[in-house]
Amino acid sequence: MNTKSAKFIVSSELPWEDVGGGLSRQIMGYDGQLMLVKVKFSKGSIGILHEHFHSQSSYVVSGVFEVSIGGEKKVLKAGDGFYLEPDIRHGAVCLEEGILIDTFSPMRLDFIKQ
User: Fold this and answer.
1) How far is CA 91 from CA 13, 48, 106, in A?
2) pLDDT digit string (tens) for 34-79?
3) Domain at 105, CATH number
4) Number of folded domains in the chain?
5) CA–CA distance from 12 to each of 8, 9, 15, 16 (Å)?
6) Average pLDDT over residues 90-99
């Protein structure tokens, strides 16, 4: 398995991976310690509540999202962001179509096609 991405990732040359439920993603770069992922949400789509051992920090590029972290909810819009410590339950509901940039440490091996 490849544990690092190419040096340059051109979004227009990278297909969107449909992950179901109105969500799609592009893996924008990674190595064993870090991963950057662009996630597109259609209005009404849900990033289901889940947890993982990775640290995560996310940036709202566009749209409006109701983000739930450890049972606390907040509506975030373009320019906002959020941080997730490892093993905390979280999810998001897309209120207006938009894009999140997610960073993970370490990389999400489960996102890489084998």
Assistant:
1) 29, 5, 19
2) 999 999 999 999 999 999 999 999 999 999 999 999 999 999 999 9
3) 2.60.120.10
4) 1
5) 12, 9, 8, 10
6) 98
Can you tell me the distance from the alpha carbon of 61 to that of 78, in angstroms, rounded to the nearest whole number?
Answer: 5
Average pLDDT for the chain: 95
Q: How far apart are CA 77 and CA 92, in angstroms?
A: 12
Which structural domain range is residue 94 located in? 22-111
- Rounded Cα distance between 41 and 8, Å, is 24
Amino acid letter, 31:
D
pTM score, whole prediction: 0.93
Handedness of CA 18, 85, 99, 77 (dihedral sign): positive
